[in-house]
């Protein structure tokens, strides 16, 4: 399974889940799944080969070095020598930005998988404030913190200094 297809943690209840990757999607999904899965193991090539770290604040979430091999019985062997019997493996290996539905007349482009130009990583100068990329993942911090703050700032700018709260149900 690829992280693109992930929606809810409930299908992973009481399972041992192995995530491959260590960026925004792996971070978000691992913490989300940890609430219902038996164990969550995150494998990353960016971790040293001997990595085996339990994540602070979680009783069932571990960081590992990359996967060395996977056996037909579902056992996953990491470079650090640890082996787990996984119920599910999810690839959190990235994605490419693509906006075929958006006609910006060349004012916004995707180049080397970066969307731009964007003022404050949100507003395309030629189209602001009518178009905003609120919550567009970028490698500057946790999206769980950045998205609500960015949304309020965007709403405030579009509504003449007033923050309008609304709820989707």
UniProtKB/TrEMBL annotation:
<dbReference type="GO" id="GO:0004499">
    <property type="term" value="F:N,N-dimethylaniline monooxygenase activity"/>
</dbReference>
<keyword id="KW-0560">Oxidoreductase</keyword>
<dbReference type="InterPro" id="IPR020946">
    <property type="entry name" value="Flavin_mOase-like"/>
</dbReference>
<keyword id="KW-0503">Monooxygenase</keyword>
<dbReference type="InterPro" id="IPR036188">
    <property type="entry name" value="FAD/NAD-bd_sf"/>
</dbReference>
<dbReference type="GO" id="GO:0050660">
    <property type="term" value="F:flavin adenine dinucleotide binding"/>
</dbReference>
<keyword id="KW-0285">Flavoprotein</keyword>
<dbReference type="InterPro" id="IPR000960">
    <property type="entry name" value="Flavin_mOase"/>
</dbReference>
<keyword id="KW-0521">NADP</keyword>
<dbReference type="Pfam" id="PF00743">
    <property type="entry name" value="FMO-like"/>
</dbReference>
<dbReference type="GO" id="GO:0050661">
    <property type="term" value="F:NADP binding"/>
</dbReference>
<comment type="similarity">
    <text>Belongs to the FMO family.</text>
</comment>
<dbReference type="InterPro" id="IPR050346">
    <property type="entry name" value="FMO-like"/>
</dbReference>
<protein>
    <recommendedName>
        <fullName>Flavin-containing monooxygenase</fullName>
        <ecNumber>1.-.-.-</ecNumber>
    </recommendedName>
</protein>
<keyword id="KW-0274">FAD</keyword>
């Amino acid at each position: 399974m690829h992280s693109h297809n992930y929606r809810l943690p409930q299908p992973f209840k009481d399972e041992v889940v192995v995530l491959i990757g260590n960026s925004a999607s792996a971070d978000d999904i691992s913490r989300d799944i940890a609430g219902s899965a038996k164990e969550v193991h995150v494998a990353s090539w960016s971790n040293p080969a001997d990595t085996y770290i339990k994540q602070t604040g979680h009783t069932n979430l571990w960081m590992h070095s990359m996967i060395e091999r996977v056996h037909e019985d579902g056992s996953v062997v990491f470079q650090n020598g640890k082996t787990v019997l996984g119920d599910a493996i999810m690839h959190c290996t990235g994605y490419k930005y693509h906006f075929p539905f958006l006609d910006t007349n060349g004012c916004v482009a995707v180049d080397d998988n970066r969307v731009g130009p964007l003022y404050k990583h949100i507003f395309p100068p030629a189209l602001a404030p009518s178009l905003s990329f609120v919550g567009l993942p970028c490698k500057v911090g946790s999206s769980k913190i950045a998205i609500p703050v960015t949304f309020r700032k965007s709403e405030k700018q579009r509504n003449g200094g007033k923050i309008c709260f609304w709820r989707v149900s």
